[in-house]
Amino acid sequence: MASSIVEEEEVAAEVEAVQAVYGDDCVVLQSYPPHLHLLLKPRTADVTSQQFVEAVIGLRAGSQYPKEPPHIDLIDSKGLDEQRQKELMSCIQDKACELSCYLMLVALCEELELEFHGFFIEPRLSVGSISLGRLEATAENHFPIMLFSPLLLLEGV
Fold first, then answer.
1. CA angle (98, 99, 105) in 5-degree steps
2. What is the mean pLDDT of residues 21-44?
3. CATH class as words, domain 2-118
4. Model-level pTM?
5. Strand 134-137 to strand 144-147: parallel, antiparallel, or no bridges (unpaired)?
């Protein structure tokens, strides 16, 4: 009984932390077991084409949370094609399974935000660019170091 009260207090603190981090973008529908909606919008509000892109994700934990991961739903989506919706949900489901048995609401919200914003950020270096480097051990320390071609340095600028 005492461990149940401690667990409930820990979950309540976790819900409070999510609210503190996400403010108005997080709506708590129920504190215990936690049920919340998280609004995701690109951080690039000044880019006209991305002003109307958003997603609302529902996280609903059962009475066995955190022993069992919460149920995760895409409640609403604007401007995200079906492929990106699937990628977002697949990524977050994988993360929930990975964190099973741990308090995970904050981590799931962070993962959702990172994955969602990743759709709108152009990578500076491609995987092909990285393959231009080679590993070599130095005579002094025998630790491998990555040597890059001068072209790679210009590509990243």
1. 130
2. 90
3. alpha beta
4. 0.68
5. antiparallel
